[in-house]
Amino acid sequence: MDQNPTRDDPTPAELLELRHSIDNIDAAVLHLLAERFKCTRKVGELKARLDLPPADPVREAQQIARLRSLAVTADLDPEFAEKFLNFLVTEVIRHHETIRRANPAAALSPGRANGAHA
Amino acid sequence: MDQNPTRDDPTPAELLELRHSIDNIDAAVLHLLAERFKCTRKVGELKARLDLPPADPVREAQQIARLRSLAVTADLDPEFAEKFLNFLVTEVIRHHETIRRANPAAALSPGRANGAHA
What we know:
The structure is a homodimer of 118-residue chains.
Chain A: H1 13-50, H2 57-73, H3 78-102
């Protein structure tokens, strides 16, 4: 492997190694998120079955506080942790809306979708 | 634990269990992302040191294709996988911009920040 690459040969071994780690991490995260969406789908179904309110502000506040705190110990920006949770919640809402469109009889209440915060 | 909760007692055991799994997954993902940002920071430093171009469209295309493919096997929406990568890249760019502001002498080239796609 060329350790002194030029722009014609731009991928040094050190960069390849870092990219391999990034790819491994991305695969691990993606599979964990697949499990997370399984859980939030079950939460949505459970809340619908038990007629629990879709949104739960107390739970959401706990999740945000916990992730911000974990971020500090992991040397991550707490703002990023909160943005990340919001990113996932947006996706969960999208999942619920897809289910609702596919099955209007099982429509969730308007506003925030069931179990979005989980 | 009340298995037939009312709205005054809204957290059934099944919901608590799902939330616990979600919290475990979130902690795992957050710590993996901390490792990922360590890698992308090293990529940025390496590219600056070797005078490699910040953006690498070939690498980016490979990452997108790979994550979309992994998403299918994990039963996730490939669109979500691509959005997720974009979300991370945006954060990596923000990291690089923070470093650049803190150390203008080490300014990266304009446009996409060093190693954003990694």
